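Field: COMPLEX_INPUT
Field: COMPONENT_COUNT = three
Field: RESIDUE_TOTAL = 1020
Field: MODE = joint
Values follow.
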Amino acid sequence: MLELENVDKVYRSRGKPPVHAVRALDMEVGKGEIVALLGSSGCGKTSTLRMIAGFEDVTSGSIALDNRRIEALPPARRKVAMAFEGYSLYPPLTVRENIGFALKAQQLSRGEVTRRVDAIAGLVEIEDILDAYPRAISGGQQQRVSLARALVRDADLYLLDEPMGQLEPQLRAVLRGRIKGLLAERGMTAIFVTHDQTEASALADRIAVMEDGILQQFASEKELKNRPANLFVASFIGEPPMNLLETEVARADGGFRLSVGSAMAFLIPGDRLDSTAQQALQQTPRVRVGIRPQKVAVGSGDVRVRIVSNQWLGDQSHVAGECAGNFLIAVTAGRVAARPGDVISFGLEPRHLHIFGTEGTCIRHAEVR
Amino acid sequence: MEHSSLAGRVFRGVALALVLVFFMFPIVWIFLMSFQSNEQILRIPPRILFEPTLFNYQALISGQLRTTAGNLEISFMRNLMNSFVLSSAAVLLALLLGVPAAYAFARFKFRLGETIAFTLLSFRFAPPLLVLLPLSLYYQQLGLNDTYFGIVWVYQLIALPLILWIVRGYFEDISPDIEHAYRLAGHSWREAFTRIAVPLAGPGIAAAGLLSFIFCWNNFVFALILASADKQPVTVGALAFVTASGIQYGQIAAAIVLSVTPTLLLALYAQRYLVEGLSLGAVKG
Amino acid sequence: MARLELSSVGKAFGAVSCAADLSLAVEPGEIVAVFGPSGSGKTVLLRMIAGMFEPDEGDILVGGHSIVGAPPERLGIGMAFQNFALFPHMTARANIASGLRARGAGADVSAKVQSISHLLKIEHVLDHSPRELSNGQKQRTALARALIGNPEVLLLDDPLRNVDAKLRYEMRLELPTLLRRGSASVLYVTQDYREAMAIADRIAVLIEGRLVQVARPEEIYARPATVAVARLFGDPSINLAEVVPVAERGVLFADISGTRVRLDTADHQPMDLGACWVGVRPDDLVISQVASGDAIPARVVAVTPMHEKAVLLLRFTDGTEWLAALPPSATVADDDVFVRFAPEASLLFDRATGVRIGLPHRRQAA
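Field: COMPLEX_OUTPUT
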């Protein structure tokens, strides 16, 4: 469907070193797939989207949509629809006219335009502001209009730049569901840019994690969480972020003993490691281990921590504890009766540990039950 | 688009060069004229190559101009001095009055505030000649005619609105929260004004000061009517070169070069402040 | 240390009322979060206390003395702003020290700056100017500046709004300890209910200039005063359906999308309540593939994983849309499912007023 091959983007401006925004990007998006480009600001995700849309030149590499090369075509001829981060609504047109603008250009009958606009307006809950002008409506409403304007079109590909960042919190979850349902029902292919991993995992079938212009990993949310390609992805994905500990490696009864000073030690049996992992551990004196806060048991286990904070968020507790200078966060569904300063037990099971070698390469993933 | 064809780049270069020549020509021509004698200047056709002479500058600086019709006294240096004194004093006074006023207009919403601010700006719309006649009558009665103070005062008509409107914009760009934060830290509003607002609007104040200095420097008609010979600025003094024996083009050119130089130097010096602008790193970018 | 007290404070800008009859007391050492949707008057409230606006009505007291009309520099209030409001032409150090110098703290200025910046982990950037700092460092500098003088009252105006998610999370863990350090009365404005619940001892819910509920976080979550409050707490937010409950033989029933569902009535005499909203949190829904008399048939429109949960958008036969949040391990194979919830998980609100209909025993959260 959409294929990016070895795409590079370099911004050159006089008197400044060139900025390599996107490096050797290979990516394939299937028909009907929803893909998120996720990363912090300056990671190259927006440049990528804009190159696909045609607002930015490709420095090198190729982009193909349905087997036709599009990287040299002007945006209007690529058959893509886009929702912009800044909304870019046409100020002199009403909301209805804004949404129907592209449809009119397609020479659809007036009745058909009205029908389609009404349908999409219902979906994003803007029926009551269809006759308002953009400046008269709130930021969240403008964003919904901008989404509707993109989704109402017939296009081969839908590009959405931070599509839901400004939405009213109470609406966000429902709209995510509805839009995902709409995209799936119509078999629409969509790529959206976001810095919010909650949004990425909620909407996307696959997530492309970018950093420094490099695609770090392109996989489903589950895969990213269970089998992160490297330390960056491991610590970037997951809320709250993965707990990381610096450990020393020693051999112990056919397995390995990973110890954090004298405070914690994890015994990894040899039969739980494949040969490459065994080899890597033999050669690396110090490794980083990571464990997701959701996998840290509270109140049982052999790690004694001093509670730093214990926060109940209505549906889950976030408990932060300190053990010999190491900071650990645990997330559990229930409430925890501990006050800052108390000493309680945390349980960190060796099978839940991700192990990372020098330079962040992944040695072993946590076992999925 | 960063990739443009070679033809496009050549075309762009030629177009830029043409515009540059068009704008720079008069300045370059005057600069060349200032090193030529009247005869050389009036030669037809004009020549690019000539034997330069410092005669014009000598005459201006010594104040003695020998022409075929005899010796002429010119007080150009005095005029230059006057220009400098009058413009600087006017700008200083305008800054002293205008900056606090601009702050008040930017920060406080008071009744008729907008009306007053607009009225002050509207002084710039009126043709100077319209106010000149009543003004000179008043000045004669008040004894302000032909005094430095009188001219500086009337220059406020030029400088004050400019400073008020430019600096007001700069003050409005500063987040009031920065001043609130300073006051909550235990400082009076006067300190917040002098230590926070004024330094942060510094580039704007410099720009406004420079601009109004140039406007004052270039003023002609106020000084022509309200000042006698010994208090006239260069703009009026240049009239002296239109003599009975003809127009002294060489001296005029040299006078222009000398009178433009200070403002030009000032502008070049202040450029970095002007460019710096208001980059308030503390406020989210 | 002194108590901060607002008594019937009211403020209007022209015809727009931004605060009406606000009464609230913050004890020394207590953190009260002012939480509400944007435009609800949170910032105006904070600014009235900071002396930037004067209230039209009512009084603001610190330690029993009115501070209305006093110039900001005399208030002894520390404040952190959403946009940081650092002095751009001073170093981080000078920013932090600005308050101490003005109050004549004298020789121990540098020691105090050192200790507060150690606490906030910004010692290494003290000599940088604000534009050289990251947003996280800017906010820490701004916090240091607010905290350093040990003010009696601390006001924080959505201080984590402009820092990225990871830092926001870290700060959320650190802030309560930091803010309690000097036993100041702390008012913390936020638009994020999780931040409010994590940081505050009590939350004051402000909607359209009125305090709708002031209570401990778990109290508000379990027993929201109105349907509007219920909708503000929880992500995804609470599911609602329009019902007219009917009492039958001591049990309250309601009709949701054609299914008769039992509602909680434990220790109050059930009676006909008129038009109501019934609210059930997405976490309390149980999804099954098997039909039963009290389960609402629904179609799964989409599955959107969030916060380590699988969130299902369900559409009932009458078009009502509800969200269900299931543990990540739950897999939903079928498009057609049946939805149930425990009677005690339901909340009832009067449809005309939005006020919750008191079921006093309400489940204790965990």
